[in-house]
Design brief:
single chain, 295 residues, alpha/beta, 14 helices, binds NADPH dihydro-nicotinamide-adenine-dinucleotide phosphate
């Protein structure tokens, strides 16, 4: 199949790399050198613009920071709308927001393009291994069409419901991830201060009822080891929390715990900066308490 992939960031790159051996792949990236390096490594064609990427593609996939970034690629002489052809399948793997996703769909409708939101979870390692969870919002027929394409990098591909429900699912998931990260930062530093060794604390937690993906996987692999790899920007996690909070407000639901977590992630983003990794709020908790989670 002729597939165009736009957005070769931390997660987009390994997702596109899974598509390259299976399909005739074209890539586009805002910073062209990254697309050139990817194209030569994976035998893909480098497009000169979003329009050039979309022209002739049966499937177009975007993976950018926000839905607004995807929207910004539509217009202009070199925009996607100028290149997309009737019948093309357009999958947006951005962790986006439902309102902008629906707006993008409205812009695409006159062209006869099938559109779905398809955000992913499972991290950069999951993308490289082809084990991502993909949360798809859109028409059931579009979901069926998308399945074989998404299976290149997705293991569990779930139809969440109508357009935008993939975004909603992803936003709540990542808000809960953020809650866990913040809670582990506070809880583990407290245990270290109370005299428990960090490794024993984590191992005991993981054999008890307070465990989570963060305690079972991320803390042992990245914090206890002191590796602190940079795979997912805190700025993007905070963006997801903001989408979740906006959704709760629109639904008229009170969520004092999640509001607080969103505020703490916002504050952490301000302190740690746009390039910080999503686990660095734990480092912040360490430096505030003077207790190191290492061992
Ligand atoms: P990165 O910040 O690593 O990369 C962002 C990509 O988008 C880059 O290719 C960048 O281009 C491009 N980009 C940014 N702004 C624009 C714009 N205005 N117009 C065109 N291109 C733009 O992000 P990730 O790859 O980590 O994340 C992408 C999406 O996937 C986000 O929505 C994120 O929340 C989600 N996600 C990320 C995961 C991860 O583990 N990293 C896991 C699951 C979901 P350039 O190279 O020029 O900067």
């Amino acid at each position: 199949m002729k597939i165009a992939f736009l957005g070769l960031g931390a997660i987009g790159r390994p997702m596109a790399a899974r598509l390259a051996p299976l399909h005739q792949l074209t890539v586009w990236n805002r910073t062209a050198e990254r697309a050139a390096a990817f194209a030569s490594e994976h035998g893909a064609r480098q497009a000169s613009s979003p329009r050039d990427a979309a022209a002739g593609a049966e499937v177009v996939i975007t993976c950018l920071p926000t839905s607004a970034d995807v929207l910004s690629l539509l217009d202009g002489p070199d925009g996607l709308l100028a290149g997309l052809e009737r019948g093309t399948l357009f999958l947006d793997c951005t962790s986006g927001d439902a309102a902008t996703t629906r707006h993008i769909a409205e812009r695409l409708a006159p062209l006869g393009v099938d559109f779905a939101d398809a955000p992913v979870s499972g991290g950069t390692n999951g993308a490289a291994a082809g084990t991502l969870t993909v949360m798809v919002g859109g028409d059931p027929a579009v979901f069926e069409r998308a399945m074989p394409v998404l299976s290149a990098f997705g293991k569990r591909i779930v139809h969440m419901g109508s357009l935008g429900t993939g975004d909603s699912m992803k936003a709540v998931n990542n808000m809960l991830l953020g809650v866990n990260i913040l809670a582990l930062g506070e809880g583990l530093t407290a245990l270290v201060k109370a005299g428990v060794s960090p490794r024993v604390a984590v191992e005991t937690l993981n054999a008890s009822s307070g465990r989570s993906f963060v305690s079972e996987s991320l803390i042992p692999d990245r914090v206890l080891t002191g590796a602190w790899p940079n795979t997912f920007r805190l700025a993007l996690l905070e963006k997801d929390a903001g989408i979740c909070l906006q959704m709760l407000r629109e639904l008229g639901l009170p969520a004092p715990l999640l509001e607080r977590a969103g505020a703490l992630l916002h504050e952490a983003r301000g302190i740690l900066g746009e390039g910080a990794d999503y686990l660095e709020p734990i480092w912040l908790a360490e430096s505030r308490s003077g207790a190191e989670i290492r061992g």
